[in-house]
Amino acid sequence: MKLLIKNGRVVNPAAQTDDILDILIENGKFARMGKKIAAAGAKTFNAAGMVVAPGFIDMHVHLREPGFERKETIATGLAAALAGGFTAVACMPNTDPVNDSGAVTRYILDRAKTAGHVAVFPIGAVTKGLEGKELAPYAEMKGAGVRAVSDDGMPVANAGVMRRAMEYAGSLGLVVIDHAEDKNLTGSGVMHEGAMSARLGLPGVPAESETVMIERDIALARLTGMAVHIAHVSTRLGVEAVRRAKDQGLRVTAEATPHHFSLNDEAVREFSTSAKMAPPLRSEEDRKAVVKGLADGTLDVIATDHAPHTYEEKLLEFDRAPNGIIGLQTAVPLAIENLVLKKKVSLARMVDAFTGAPACILGLGNRGRIEVGLPANLTLFSLEQTTFLTPDDIKSLGKNSPFLNRKIKGAVTASVIAGKLNVLGIGTAAK
Amino acid sequence: MSLGKHLLGTEGLTAEQITEILDTADNMREIGTRSVKKVPALRGKLVVNLFFEASTRTRSSFEIAEKRLSADTLNFSASTSAVKKGESLVDTVLNIERMQPDCYVMRHASPGSHHMILPHTKASVVNAGDGAHEHPTQALLDALTIRQKKGGFKGLDVLICGDIAHSRVVRSNIHLLNTMGAKVTVCGPATLLPPKMESLGVRVTTDFEEALKKKDVVMMLRMQLERQQHGLFPTLLEYYKTYGLTKERLQRARKDVILMHPGPMNRGVEIDSEVADGPSSVILDQVENGVSIRMAVLYLLLGGGENEASH
After folding, report:
1. Averaged pLDDT for residues A96-111
2. What is the DSSP string of A258-269?
3. Are A202 and B132 an interchain contact pair (Cβ–Cβ within 8 Å)?
4. CA nearest to A192 within chain B
5. Which of A147, A204, A153, A205 is nearest to A180 (CA)?
6. Mutating which of B6, B91, B113, B227 best tests the A interface, going by the most A Cβ atoms within 10 A?
7. Which chain B residue has its CA at the smallest distance from A312's CA?
8. A188 Cβ under 8 Å from any chain B Cβ
């Protein structure tokens, strides 16, 4: 079985490629890349006008299964990932039961097998039950397929526990993904603490709620010599802390979400619960710092923190509604519109943030680049077309997004997963 | 200039709109002095008092205003309603909506809860307090009281002192007083002053005695005991000693200062009885003006004029 992707602008940051090239895929693997490839009997996809990139990876999603199947199932989450142009996702362990055992990891992978073609890499819990006390069995979970550990949403408050987690996980080659938040400093806060929270009378979450934990865990990376990945950095101070740590040669990586680089706390003005998440939308100054961090590579990765909730949960009052928004189907257009087309982040860096960087952090050696012999995963997108999604276009069970019913410049057009072509383009238009 | 359909806050109200409400309230006052304290302006209109948080004076004040305007009223409070059984705010509104209300007067602990119900109702919505966000009729009755005593707002030096962080009264007053040309200072312990409060166009200070100097209006806010329990200040006595308004402290303000309090007061915590009951106090005028303001707001929102014209 042959598939020929013709005339696309191939952007492959790992080899510093940015050229109009054809890619031939045979038996699910990259077979050739070059100018004007002719392949008799190959199915051909004309990618003229499109960017052809390595398969996009979202290393931070909540698939909600097991336990919260009204918010999302593995099947619906992967359908959203596919529609959004992702070829692989890593899913967070805050399910019910928590993914703190090989059994739950295997359950997720079993469900994923029949749920779609998008690859799933489970993330295990740092502590049993996400309680912040006893370490979860990392070796057992790794054996079952876990690629990282995280207490996302329930950060490890005890620095001693976090130290042991980093040491033990690091010795097994697992990175600890850190939801950097001091819950005591967050208190009852439900939005960024600043001029807008003062105006709206909503309790604020200071930027320092994030930065004291980032600083703590950078200190622990120094102490242990192990790797830590800071999830969803939202503040200027956080970006600066990560930059300093990298300058010092520490094994610190970080990610940013599309909502944190696209919106600021103005979005809360009408009390929309689709603008409520943790960490919260920050000030414009913070947003700009996140963009800059992505541009210079301080923030390695773009990850969605896709967090579906039911309609009725998000129909609650702002201070009572749960944190989180969906992101799988809007991430790529938002990155195109707000990073690439505004000339803040180069196309190659944007692609790297979705491909090489997360593959490297999660140790996915076969992914993140286009290379002859590797399994063929590609994401194809257009910088010209636009995306306009209505709730009906959303494949997730949760429709909680501030980016619906609005035009976003940029669109995912197709993907290749293990050699299989998926023509995409829900809600996309020519201009 | 029309007030529009809803009154969610004082933020965004123009000076003309505020003046129209105050002028209308002045006209309403006389009704309360009649032997038959009732006009048919809102006859046949159904006003639902939707209170998800305890309130005595605001609710009574609205209810009296509604009755004086001959509206039919339905009192719905959290303690007696399905809300206790877990019904959501939107579902509650959707149910009441089928009883064809013309207006909701709503109090709710969550900031912005009024914005939430707008897509689900055809009726007018009056905010009777949403968390620490806004309480527009309180600011309007405060403004009516200030206008009665001071003749206007231009250049007035106003101090609001107390639990600024948790006060809807302070936010509504800031927006209104700024629009009307007064200067506002807010004061309280640092733990109860949210960062960036100055972005609302006020001076912010923790020095109460300094802040009192040359003030035309001093507004004291209620200090709730639970703030102390949450570690925001050490003891009520310490609060009183630092931020309690005493006769001696009030002398720092202008001679003709007026002293206000949205109530209910904690005598001996934020305010001494001597000043609360003293010659500068207009606290009970505020209560009285509350009825006139609420009559004015309901009348202007519910098209009382049209109603009369059709009879």
Report:
1. 98
2. HHHHH--GGGGT
3. yes
4. B195
5. A153
6. B113
7. B88
8. no
Using a 10 angstrom Cβ sphere, with 0-12 exposed, 13-18 middle and 19 or more buried, the burial of residue B73 is middle
Contact B113 A317 (CB under 8 A): yes
Pairing of strands B157-161, B183-187: parallel
Closest chain B CA to residue A202: B111
| Active-site annotation holder among A305, A319, A392, A393 | A305
Phi-psi region of B45 (alpha: psi -120 to 50; beta: other; left: phi over 0): beta
Tell me the residue length of chain B: 311
- Output b/e per residue, B125-145; b: 16+ Cβ within 10 A: bbbbbbbbbbbbbbbbbbbbb
Is residue A265 annotated as a catalytic residue, yes or no? no
Q: Please tell me if residue B110 touches chain A, with a CB cutoff of 8 Å.
A: yes
Judged by a CB distance cut-off of 8 A, whether residue B72 touches chain A is no
Average pLDDT, chain B: 93
Residue B3, amino acid: L
Task: Give A207→chain B minimum CA distance, Å.
Answer: 12
Report the pLDDT value the prediction gives residue B311, as an integer from 0 to 100. Answer: 36
Contact of A202 with B111, CB cutoff 8 Å: yes
pLDDT recorded at residue B80: 61
Q: For the segment A241-296, what is each residue's pLDDT rounded down to a tens digit?
A: 999 999 999 999 999 999 999 999 999 999 999 999 999 999 999 999 999 999 99
Q: How many CA atoms does the CB half-sphere of A244 hold within 13 Å?
A: 12
Per-chain mean pLDDT for chain A:
97
Please report which helix (H) or strand (E) contains residue A205, including its range.
strand A204-205
Our CA angle for A330, A355, A62, nearest 5°, is 50
Three-state helix/strand/coil letters over chain B? CCCCCCECCCCCCCHHHHHHHHHHHHHHHHHHHCCCCCCCCCCCCEEEEEECCCCCHHHHHHHHHHHHCCCEEEEEEHHHCHHHHCCCHHHHHHHHHCCCCCEEEEEECCCCHHHHHHHHCCCEEEEEEECCCECHHHHHHHHHHHHHHHCCCCCCEEEEECCCCCCHHHHHHHHHHHHHCCEEEEECCHHHCCCCHHHHCCEEECCHHHHCCCCCEEEECCCCHHHHHCCCCCCHHHHHHHHCECHHHHCCCCCCCEEECCCCCCECCCECHHHHCCCCECHHHHHHHHHHHHHHHHHHHCCHHHHHHCC
pLDDT-derived band at B1, boundaries 50, 70, 90: low
Which of B196, B221, B227 to substitute to test the interface with A, most A CBs within 10 Å? B196
Q: Which member of B90, B111, B115 has the closest CB to residue A319?
A: B111
Helix B283-301 to helix B57-68 angle, to the nearest 10 degrees?
50
* Nearest of A61, A17, A23, A68 to residue A45 by alpha carbon: A23
Of the candidates A241, A243, A280, A237, the one whose C-alpha atom is nearest the C-alpha of residue A259 is: A280
Question: Which residue in chain A has the smallest CA separation from B120?
Answer: A315
Quick check: helix, strand or coil at residue A384? strand
Closest CB from A197, A270, A320 relative to B115 = A270
B6 close to A (CB below 8 A): no
**Tokens matching residue A347:** 């196309």
| Dist. CA A292–CA A243, nearest whole Å | 11
**Who among B88, B110, B131 is closest to A315 (CB)?**
B88
Average pLDDT (A377-406) is 97
Question: Is any Cβ of chain B less than 8 angstroms from the Cβ of A372?
Answer: no
- Distance from the Cα of A202 to chain B's closest Cα (Å) equals 6
